[in-house]
């Protein structure tokens, strides 16, 4: 007979073994009703003389995915997770965690406090708290090192790295892999334990395995480089170092305190905001639940250039078939070679097997003929960024594709509305704007045109997810969201340069803020010719000052194309190490002389404010125009696409922390200094400042 302990936890007794089943969709987070149900299940086990073991299993897609993030920041109702875990640990009869899906955070901590863990082969395990700016608070950093060794545990805790069931079985985290039905397998396992007279096992009582104490220093140094600016990874090392040095009970209290402290930290708030914003971004405005994604199996990519190759690789990686279409055997051959090189380097790094590489390349076909596209489900237009060239490709695709096939354009700046309306199938047209290198960059700006059908929007969202990308739906707007905001930062960086700042100073300020690389080092990496071409494309829409601020063109004229020519804004040695270059100073001085600009000392604060607030002001206009549906979408775009530090939550979240009034006052100041056409506060900023509100209310 099934007994309902709480709304989400039920109990069934099979002879002398009880099974507690949790069903708390979507991810069996450890909400209050789950914690209460688990406590009651342990009580039922302890109070029954007939029952000798308990199995914990979850319905739905996963084992507990952790604490309920929606409860963070609110008063917690008892029993707290720590209490449930202490009860599991103290229980005098064996408890078996039966795991499928992902056992994460508090979910893994529950499993660690059980005597035994069995799992299906596809299960994954992790303590990803660090990604939310916190650390395990219920014994994870104490039990995991005891079970699997200090070094592996430290990596999992400080990087939030997941491991699979095979590795977990190998390192002792999992006791058995279940091939059959999970509950049946767990019952069989528990039966064998009982019959063999096996009793309880407590990870809390295991000795600390031996380890090299130098590993903490090495981890700190490596994490400092890889997670620059993040607080929690460094604290994770302190925590594990402490956890293995002092008695369990004392360490347990200190672990809880550390977690509580971090939960209130600005970084954790920002990272938790982003976790929610990324999921919110998948909910497309005006899309009803019946807009089901279409089935996409075969894709055409038109244009074998840098973007086309990267995009083709994304689809191949996700298991789809790709027809790459180009204008000559030579360009197609080069593209295939470049894609093969991506896979060869993955093979060398050990992240791809030889069979998988072969399978991916076997799904790639090359053609010069649109007639070969009759059976594709979706075509990606990724040709040169010129309206006439793209319009011609659209015409050819229209003629060659099935009527129900979708066309997506990868345009960065052109008007998708115009391209769509010239097509025979405007309802089957949308944008999927990838970023270079497409097979690496997570962000995809999906673009809705006014006629895009709801199921086309659902399809491109699902497709981008299938490619492992972070899709955000945006609307019509020149440069969409990411590039439109970036162009304002680029403009200010150039103006600051001609007013007297150096590339090194501006790069230092912006990378000190948290961007992975400064704008000038990035320009040198991308190539000054690329920057000059982007500038030429924007020229018709530039102000007089922007046109005259032609430092990029001067660098190109001097043959300084960036890293590839050994000099750009910086000079590069054979190891591509950058150093400031007197040659650049001369070019800048000549530019200032020609423009009649007397250089001045510019403070770091001014640099940061002008670069950042110009972007935020533009974002406010984007929101007002509806080109982004909500501020969270902009935060996701900038953190996943352009390196805005996630621990600051994205430009909109960060703006609220600064205060919109403060930003408005600075915009007024820079309007007077630089010009109203550049810094006039957006009406939304004026309104929010007057109402003393933020983008998030
Ligand atoms: N609490 C509450 N809701 C959660 C959640 C959690 N821990 N994890 C996921 N969800 C919600 C999501 O917000 C989403 O909700 P909507 O449908 O309303 O948008 C829904 O569950 C599905 O999530 P995903 O879209 O992410 O689904 P997925 O299948 O792609 O991934 C997952 C599933 C791997 C579990 C992923 O959701 C995930 O990584 N979750 C976070 C896990 C985590 O960080 N756990 C640690 C929490 S902190 C902790 O546990 C320590 C402590 O005690 C303080």
Automatic annotation (TrEMBL):
Keyword rRNA-binding in record: no
Coiled coil: none
The UniProt record lists the keyword Transcription: no
UniProt cross-references to InterPro entries, sorted A to Z: 3-OHacyl-CoA_DH_NAD-bd, 3HC_DH_C, 6-PGluconate_DH-like_C_sf, ClpP/crotonase-like_dom_sf, Enoyl-CoA_hydra/iso, NAD(P)-bd_dom_sf
Location of the 3-hydroxyacyl-CoA dehydrogenase NAD binding domain: 298-475
Pathway: Lipid metabolism; fatty acid beta-oxidation
Matching SUPFAM superfamilies: 6-phosphogluconate dehydrogenase C-terminal domain-like, ClpP/crotonase, NAD(P)-binding Rossmann-fold domains
Keyword tags: Fatty acid metabolism, Isomerase, Lipid degradation, Lipid metabolism, Lyase, Multifunctional enzyme, NAD, Oxidoreductase, Peroxisome
Molecular functions per Gene Ontology: (3S)-3-hydroxyacyl-CoA dehydrogenase (NAD+) activity; enoyl-CoA hydratase activity; isomerase activity; NAD+ binding
Record-level GO BP terms: fatty acid beta-oxidation
Pfam families the UniProt entry points to: 3HCDH, 3HCDH_N, ECH_1
Top-rank lineage group of the source organism: Bacteria
Domain 3-hydroxyacyl-CoA dehydrogenase C-terminal: 479-572, 607-691
PANTHER family tied to this protein: 3-HYDROXYACYL-COA DEHYROGENASE
Name this polypeptide is given: Short chain enoyl-CoA hydratase /3-hydroxyacyl-CoA dehydrogenase
Organism: Microvirga subterranea
């Amino acid at each position: 007979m099934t007994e309902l302990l709480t709304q989400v936890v039920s109990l069934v007794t099979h002879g002398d073994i009880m099974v507690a089943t949790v069903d708390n969709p979507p991810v069996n987070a450890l909400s209050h009703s789950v914690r209460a149900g688990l406590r009651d299940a342990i009580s039922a086990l302890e109070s029954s003389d007939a029952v000798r073991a308990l199995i914990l299993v979850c319905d739905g897609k996963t084992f507990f995915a952790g604490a309920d993030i929606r409860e963070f920041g609110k008063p917690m109702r008892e029993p707290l997770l720590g209490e449930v875990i202490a009860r599991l640990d103290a229980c005098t009869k064996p408890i078996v965690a039966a795991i499928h899906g992902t056992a994460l955070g508090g979910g893994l901590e529950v499993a660690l406090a059980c005597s035994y863990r069995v799992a299906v082969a596809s299960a994954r395990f992790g303590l990803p708290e660090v990604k939310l700016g916190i650390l395990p608070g219920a014994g994870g950093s104490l039990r995991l090192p005891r079970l699997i060794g200090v070094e592996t545990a430290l990596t999992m805790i400080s990087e939030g790295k997941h491991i699979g069931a095979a590795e977990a079985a190998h390192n002792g985290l999992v006791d058995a892999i279940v091939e059959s039905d999970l509950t049946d397998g767990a019952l069989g396992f528990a039966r064998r334990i009982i019959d063999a007279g096996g009793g309880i096992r407590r990870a809390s009582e295991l000795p600390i395995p031996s380890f090299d104490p130098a590993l903490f220093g090495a981890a700190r140094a490596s994490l400092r480089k890889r997670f620059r600016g993040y607080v929690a990874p460094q604290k994770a090392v302190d925590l594990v170092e402490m956890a293995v040095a002092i008695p369990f009970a004392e360490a347990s209290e200190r672990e809880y305190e550390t977690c509580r402290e971090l939960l209130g930290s600005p970084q954790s708030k920002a990272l938790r905001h982003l976790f929610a914003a990324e999921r919110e971004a998948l909910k497309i405005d005006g899309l009803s639940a019946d807009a089901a994604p279409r089935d996409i199996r075969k894709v055409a990519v038109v244009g074998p250039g840098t973007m086309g190759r990267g995009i083709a690789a994304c689809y191949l990686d996700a298991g789809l078939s790709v027809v790459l279409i180009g204008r000559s055997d030579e360009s197609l051959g080069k593209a295939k070679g470049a894609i093969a090189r991506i896979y060869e380097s993955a093979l060398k790094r050990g992240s791809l097997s030889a069979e998988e590489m072969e399978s991916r390349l076997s799904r790639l076909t090359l053609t010069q003929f649109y007639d070969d596209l009759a059976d594709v489900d979706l075509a990606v237009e990724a040709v040169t960024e010129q309206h006439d060239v793209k319009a011609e490709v659209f015409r050819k695709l229209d003629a060659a594709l099935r009527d129900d096939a979708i066309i997506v354009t990868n345009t960065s700046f052109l008007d998708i509305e115009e391209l769509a309306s010239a097509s025979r199938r405007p309802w089957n047209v949308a944008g999927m704007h990838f970023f270079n290198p497409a097979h690496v960059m997570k962000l995809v700006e999906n673009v809705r045109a006014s006629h895009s059908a709801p199921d086309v929007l659902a399809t491109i969202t699902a497709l981008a997810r299938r490619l492992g990308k972070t899709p955000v739906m945006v609307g019509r707007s020149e440069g969409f969201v990411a590039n439109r905001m970036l162009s304002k930062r680029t403009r200010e960086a150039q103006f600051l340069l001609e007013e007297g700042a150096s590339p090194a100073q501006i790069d230092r300020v912006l990378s000190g803020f948290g961007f992975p690389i400064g704008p000038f080092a990035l320009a040198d990496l991308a190539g000054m010719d690329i920057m000059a071409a982007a500038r030429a494309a924007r020229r018709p829409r530039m102000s007089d000052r922007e046109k005259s601020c032609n430092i990029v063109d001067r660098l190109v004229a001097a043959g300084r194309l960036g890293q590839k020519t050994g000099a750009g804004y910086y000079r590069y040695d054979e190891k591509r190490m950058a150093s400031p270059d007197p040659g650049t100073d001369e070019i800048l001085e000549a530019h200032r002389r020609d423009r009649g600009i007397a250089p001045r000392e510019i403070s770091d604060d001014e640099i940061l404010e002008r670069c950042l607030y110009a972007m935020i002001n533009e974002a406010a206009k984007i929101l007002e125009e509806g080109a982004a549906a909500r501020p969270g979408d902009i935060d996701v775009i900038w953190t996943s696409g352009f390196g805005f530090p996630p621990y600051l939550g994205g430009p909109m979240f960060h703006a609220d922390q600064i205060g919109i009034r403060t930003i408005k006052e600075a915009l007024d100041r820079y309007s007077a200094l630089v010009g109203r056409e550049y810094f006039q506060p957006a009406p939304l900023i004026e309104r929010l400042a007057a109402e003393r509100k933020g983008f998030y209310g």
